[in-house]
């Protein structure tokens, strides 16, 4: 902290001859003779105001900058945390998407396997074999009942009963 003051000069003694000097060892580049005028005694005079405004201490400037610095740091931390959360959410969604793709591929293989079973099981020989395995017997000749427009019914053909299950296969 600097202050400005006016100096008053007070001379000790009236003439340069009144001062006594003692001989000193001389150094190169220094004067060997005493000064022609005595040195004035300087002192501060209180109550004189400075002509220019005082400089503020650095701590005051730091205190003014502190909210701005805290705001910038808070923004940086907030942005970093936001990006971290966003990146984590994207990674989780990516893992879920990969898992769903794998499950979708497994289900597509299952559908393909079931469709192959339907195609191979749809032939008449396969249907007959499955019927025999289930304990069914082949039907005999069928008879048809035809209903006329007036509500009368007429039997066409001679129905025959199916054979017993023991005739084609041994029972359990």
Helix and strand run: HHEEH
Unreliable runs: none
Q: Using the CA coordinates, give the radius of gyration.
A: 59 Å
Number of helices: 3
How much strand? under 5%
- Pairing-aware structural class of the strands and helices? mainly alpha
**Total strand count, please?**
2
Topology:
Blueprint: H1 58-121, H2 124-133, E1 144-147, E2 153-156, H3 165-168
Antiparallel strand pairs: 1-2
Describe what is shown at a glance.
The chain is mostly helical.
Descriptive overview:
45% of the residues lie in helices and 5% in strands. By secondary structure, the protein is mostly helical. Strand 1 and strand 2 (153-156) form a beta hairpin. The chain is rod-shaped and about 160 Å long. It starts with 57 loop residues before the first helix and ends with a helix.
């Amino acid at each position: 902290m600097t202050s400005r003051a006016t100096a008053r000069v007070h001379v000790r003694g009236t003439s340069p001859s009144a001062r006594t000097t003692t001989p000193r060892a001389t150094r190169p580049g220094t004067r060997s003779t005493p000064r022609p005028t005595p040195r004035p005694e300087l002192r501060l005079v209180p109550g004189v105001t400075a002509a220019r405004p005082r400089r503020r201490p650095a701590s005051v400037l730091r205190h003014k900058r502190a909210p701005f610095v805290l705001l910038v740091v808070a923004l940086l931390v907030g942005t970093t945390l936001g990006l971290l959360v966003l990146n984590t959410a994207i990674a989780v969604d990516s893992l879920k998407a990969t898992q769903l793709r794998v499950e979708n591929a497994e289900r597509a293989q299952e559908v393909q396997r079931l469709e192959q079973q339907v195609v191979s099981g749809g032939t008449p020989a396969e249907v007959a074999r499955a019927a025999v395995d289930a304990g069914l017997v082949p039907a005999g000749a069928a008879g048809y009942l035809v209903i006329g427009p007036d509500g009368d019914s007429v039997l066409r053909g001679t129905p025959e009963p199916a054979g017993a299950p023991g005739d084609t296969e041994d029972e359990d």
